[in-house]
């Protein structure tokens, strides 16, 4: 399906494994570490809700998580 294809292209472009891409995406959009297929879940949630949830997750990361110093 289109959503999965686009996500997999982005993973390849970013050189990120599915595990490192899909798991955080699932947590950010469902609040859970386990769900039915991630892409099916995203489709069921719907694009507007997924985008809102991703925006909230990004805001949380930017404001609540400590910045790690680079070596």
Question: Which helices and strands occur, and which strands form pairs?
Answer:
Elements: H1 2-14, H2 18-30, H3 38-45, H4 47-64
Helix pairs in contact: 2-3, 2-4
Characterization of this structure:
By secondary structure, the protein is mostly helical. It is 73% helix and 0% strand. It has four helices and no strands. It has helices at 2-14, 18-30, 38-45, 47-64. Helix 2 packs parallel to helix 3 (38-45) and helix 2 (18-30) packs across helix 4. The protein is globular, with a radius of gyration of 13 Å. The termini are far apart. The model has no long low-confidence stretch (mean pLDDT 91).
Count of separate DSSP helical elements: 4
Shape: globular
Query: Gap between N and C termini, in Å?
Result: 41 Å
Please estimate the helix content. over 70%
Major pleated sheet: none
Q: Measured on Cα atoms, how large is the radius of gyration?
A: 13 Å
User: From N to C, what is the helix and strand string?
Assistant: HHHH
Mean pLDDT across all residues, rounded? 91
Low-confidence stretches: none
Number of strands: 0
User: What structural class do helix, strand and pairing data support?
Assistant: mainly alpha
Strand percentage lies at under 5%
């Amino acid at each position: 399906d289109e959503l999965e294809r686009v996500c997999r292209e982005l993973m390849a472009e970013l050189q990120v494994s599915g595990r490192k891409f899909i798991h955080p995406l699932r947590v950010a959009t469902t609040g859970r570490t386990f769900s039915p297929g991630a892409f099916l879940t995203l489709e069921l949630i719907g694009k507007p809700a997924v985008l809102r949830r991703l925006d909230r997750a990004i805001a949380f990361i930017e404001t609540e998580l400590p910045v790690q110093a680079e070596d």
